[in-house]
Write a structure and sequence with these properties.
Blueprint: E1 3-6, E2 9-12, E3 18-21, H1 36-40, E4 51-53, H2 62-74, E5 76-79, H3 82-88, E6 93-97, E7 111-116, H4 119-131, E8 144-150, H5 159-162, H6 178-191, H7 216-224, H8 235-238, H9 241-249, E9 260-267, E10 269-273, E11 276-281, H10 293-302, H11 314-318, H12 328-338, H13 352-356, E12 366-368, E13 379-385, H14 400-417, H15 421-428
Parallel strand pairs: 3-4, 3-7, 7-8, 8-9, 9-13, 12-13
Antiparallel strand pairs: 1-2, 5-6, 10-11
Helix pairs in contact: 2-4, 6-7
Length: 429
């Protein structure tokens, strides 16, 4: 918190700091996020909210990222947990943070957290682990005053299958697919990590992948068949529908009664056929370059065949759509008409329904649309059309939608902070 002056007297700033958690492959910190703070603080009077970029593993699993997020804030040696580490075959401890970015984090000094893409479910996982006592008895879910997300794949995304994850046997990866090539890059960068710049730091030291830990023969073996890529403890598997179903079965992501939740769901596609719910890219979204990677990925997501996925995702079973006893081609044609279009509408990376919140609307408290009076324990969902996965963050281009997003987020956080503890207790009782 910072001091300002009002009528000549010092006034303590009441703005709670905002922690930003980047998504998959996100490792830029504040380098490209630009001048967003001007708009975040535009209506702050005589004060400026502190913004903290928390470093987490760009390719790590949600569990490992959540642990890295916690210790980067409070300080100390990252502890992934004995049971988890044994189950997934990596070291229990990671790097040591001699000084945390916010060591005073507590019930008296809570934080707002904002996650882009995979940063959203990382924060949700963190709150879940705090509830489970993973970080000891002192850490508490109420340390998180609000969770704010942008384009987050809470319930998985079909793009991971398009890029290489096998639809019938995840986390296995198809040879020579983009996902397979990515895993080779991860191993090569990790192997050379001791001599590479920090911008390429993948936080893989607990997996002992550098030339300090393994031989060149071992590296070549991993380049042929990657233990990391075909692990259930890696980022690609955590965005499969199967992994999302496991998290929902454990009630991860259920809103806590004293935390505020807000998600920003983005999409740039539109329905392409009258009698089917498949989606394609808005014509007006195809700005230079006309055929961008995101537009190509958006088309793949918008026409994805859900009938190929095994095990069958829970959102299909909830609607009575199961291809197990049905001719697959007939099933695919049928559910393209009956499955709502939010399962194909997307921002080039994540389908719209997955960005709303963890679990289905029927099993979590949610409100879709804007609100000026936030209440804790409810997911508030805003949808932004003609907006891609990278339109709002991280690359700052000073667009109108970027300015609007940060201005609205600042208002939202101040509305939360204007509620005192008695108001929150009353609304949750």
């Amino acid at each position: 918190m910072s001091n300002s002056k009002e009528n000549g007297f010092p006034v303590q700033c009441q703005c709670i700091p905002l922690v930003i958690v980047e998504g998959f492959l996100g490792r830029t910190g504040s380098r490209i996020w630009g001048d967003f703070e001007t708009h975040l603080n535009q209506e702050c009077y005589q004060c400026k909210r502190r913004v903290i970029f928390a470093p987490v593993g760009p390719v790590s699993s949600l569990h490992d990222r959540a642990c890295e997020l916690y210790y980067s804030l409070v300080g100390g040696t990252v502890d992934y947990g004995e049971e988890h580490s044994i189950a997934h075959g990596h070291s229990r401890h990671g790097r040591t943070h001699s000084q945390g970015l916010y060591p005073q984090w507590s019930l008296e000094n809570p934080l707002h957290l904002l996650g882009h893409s995979m940063g959203g479910p990382t924060i949700v996982k963190l709150q879940y682990l705090m509830k489970q006592g993973h970080f000891g008895s002192l850490a508490h879910p109420d340390w998180i005053r609000s969770i704010n997300t942008i384009s987050s794949p809470f319930r998985g995304t079909q793009i991971v299958y398009t890029l290489g994850e096998r639809v019938d046997a995840a986390p296995k990866v198809r040879p020579l697919s983009p996902g397979s090539l990515l895993s080779k890059a991860v191993h090569a960068i990790s192997y050379l990590s001791p001599v590479l710049p920090t911008l390429l730091d993948l936080h893989t030291e607990s997996r002992r992948m550098s030339y300090h830990d393994i031989s060149i023969v071992c590296l070549l073996r991993q380049l042929w068949k990657s233990d990391w890529a075909e692990s259930q403890d890696a980022a690609p598997f955590d965005v499969t529908f199967e992994s999302a179903d496991k998290r929902e079965a454990n009630l991860e992501g259920q809103p806590y009664p004293r935390t505020f939740y807000r998600s920003c769901a983005t999409y740039l596609t539109e329905k392409c056929e009258e009698d089917r719910n498949l989606h394609t890219v808005h014509f007006k979204s195809l700005s230079f370059p006309l055929i961008s990677p995101l537009s190509l990925l958006a088309r793949a997501i918008g026409s994805f065949d859900f009938s190929t996925i095994r095990p069958v995702p829970s959102f299909l079973e909830e609607r009575g759509l199961s291809p197990i006893d049905t001719e697959q081609d007939l099933f695919a044609s049928d559910f393209q008409k009956t499955l709502p279009e939010e399962y194909w509408a997307n921002d080039g990376v994540v389908p719209l329904f997955s960005q709303w919140h963890p679990a289905s609307c029927s099993s979590t408290r949610c409100q879709h649309g804007e609100t000026k009076s936030p209440a804790p324990g409810i997911w508030y969902v805003e949808q932004w059309d003609n907006t891609s996965h990278s339109s709002l963050v991280p690359l700052w281009v000073a667009s109108d939608c970027q300015k609007q997003y940060w201005l609205k987020l600042g208002r939202w956080l101040r509305a939360i902070e204007s509620q005192n503890e008695s108001d929150i207790v009353t609304s949750t009782s």
